[in-house]
Amino acid sequence: MERTILIYDAVPIMKYAYEGLFKDISRCKLHFATNELVMEQHLKDHTFDLVIVDVLVKQKINYSLVKRISRLKKSLNIAVFSAIYDEETKRKLFALGASVVLEKTDSIEHLAKTIHLLTEGSQYFETKMKIGNSKLKFPRRSVNPLLKLSSRELQVAELLIQGLSNQAMTQRLDLAATTISTYKKRIFTKIGVMNILDLAAVFKKYQ
């Protein structure tokens, strides 16, 4: 069964990260919205199995997003996918209609499992999901982890987020494939992330 998913994220570049993520989650048709008007039009024009929404906009929680989606489609599962770590904020989002609150530092496996359960009609669910217990993959402090990267590493990281393959990057940067792989490992290690989606979340937070 193909799952139809609407993704709302106000940062256009995050589309590449989501597309990269969903390569590993089979049979998903994605629709994207970067503003609320487009999101509402999609909800009116299409039937979705799930909405994934980032409610963190310019470091502030936009609670109205979840409320508006819930009002338009009362039975639709809503997955909040943001850099949210405090439990009080999560409780407010659940009260407004969120089915689950996922942190952008959660693993791809965790996200894939949740999407599968939500789009199969399951209501989540485990207490550990509703009251997030995920360990952060980078420290909760104001120090910008991107400062650890060299200018070349920053360049490679930005291309990774845009979804370029290693082969495409070798042509763009005139580097060997092995060198690109080395840069990728070094970037992940320095920032403390496990995948490109986590890397994109760090860029969104600190750039």
Structure commentary:
There is one protein chain. The chain is α/β, with parallel strands linked by helices and 207 residues long. The longest helix is centred in the last third of the chain and has 15 residues. It is globular and about 50 Å long. It starts with a strand and ends with a helix.
Defining key terms:
single chain; alpha/beta; 5-stranded parallel sheet; two-stranded antiparallel ribbon; 7 strands
Structural class by SSE content = alpha/beta
Average pLDDT, rounded to a whole number, is: 79
SS element count, helices = 10
How many DSSP E strands? 7
In percent, how much strand structure appears in the residues? 5-15%
- Helix and strand run: EHEHEEEHEHEHHHHHH
Q: Provide the spatial order of strands within the biggest beta sheet.
A: 2-1-3-6-7
Roughly how many Å is the radius of gyration?
Answer: 17 Å
Helical fraction equals 40-55%
- Describe the main β-sheet briefly: 5 strands, parallel
Poorly predicted residue ranges? 122-142
Distance between the termini: 38 Å
* Shape category: globular
Give a brief rundown of this model.
The protein is 48% helix and 14% strand. With 207 residues, the protein is of the alpha/beta class.
What layout of secondary structure does this protein have?
Layout: E1 3-8, H1 14-22, E2 28-33, H2 36-45, E3 50-53, E4 56-57, E5 60-61, H3 63-72, E6 78-82, H4 87-96, E7 100-103, H5 108-119, H6 127-130, H7 151-161, H8 166-173, H9 177-191, H10 196-206
Helix pairs in contact: 1-10, 2-3, 7-9, 7-10
